Structure formats: structure tokens, C-alpha cells
Amino acid sequence: MRCVIARYPFDLVKSEVETQMEGVRPEPTTGACVVIGRKVFPVKQVGEIITRQDRRDFTAFEVTRALTRLGFTCHATPPESPATRSASFPTLG
Q1: pLDDT, block means (10 residues), the chain with 93 residues
Q2: What's this model's pTM, rounded to 2 decimal places?
Q3: Which superkingdom does the taxonomy of this entry point to (predicted)?
């Protein structure tokens, strides 16, 4: 799929993005993030890897839009993990 990130055109393929992100340790997420495989990555980290550009050169929105069009699930904030969810809502017993 052809997309423009930081005024540069890129031809991105979902399987190639997944391959590039294999073995990469996700950084802590506080804002926009994307689920690739079973890991949650900050979109800026993914954008830096797939475009080989500095993170300051593009916005999270540009990368989020491209990844969404490729079929990845993106979130404005990190999704809750099951451990966090159970700690937030204790069961009544």
C-alpha cells in the first residue's frame, strides 16, 4: 500500500511490517499504540523502524493512519492488560 509519512512516499505491506517488528522489544506505551502480533508498540517506535526516519520527522497520526489502512489495530491509549483489569475491578465473593 502506498502512503505518505513526513512528506515521503512509502510502499508498505502488512507482512513486511510484521517481519521488521519481529524480535523488537516494545518500549513503554503512554499514548498512541499499535498491536502487532501479540505485542503493543508505540506508533512512533514502529514508524521509526519502518521508515528509517527520526521520530521527530513525523506525527503519530501519520503512522496510525498508515497502520490502520494496512489492517493493524491501533489505540489512542494503551489497551488494558488482563492483570490490570482484574486489579481495577475486584470480584465480589
Answers
A1: 91 95 93 94 96 95 95 89 54 54
A2: 0.81
A3: Bacteria
Residue with cell 465473593: 93
Measured distance CA(17)–CA(38) in Å, rounded: 14
3-state secondary structure of 47: helix
Domain boundaries, the chain: 2-79
> Half-sphere exposure (CA, 13 Å, Cβ side) for 92?
0
**Residue 68 carries which side chain, given as an amino acid letter?**
T
Nine cell digits for residue 19:
517481519
CB atoms closer than 10 angstroms to residue 63: 26
Place of cell 508498505: 12
The sheet with strand 73-75 has its strands ordered as 39-42, 33-36, 73-75
Q: Rg for the chain (alpha carbons), in Å?
A: 15
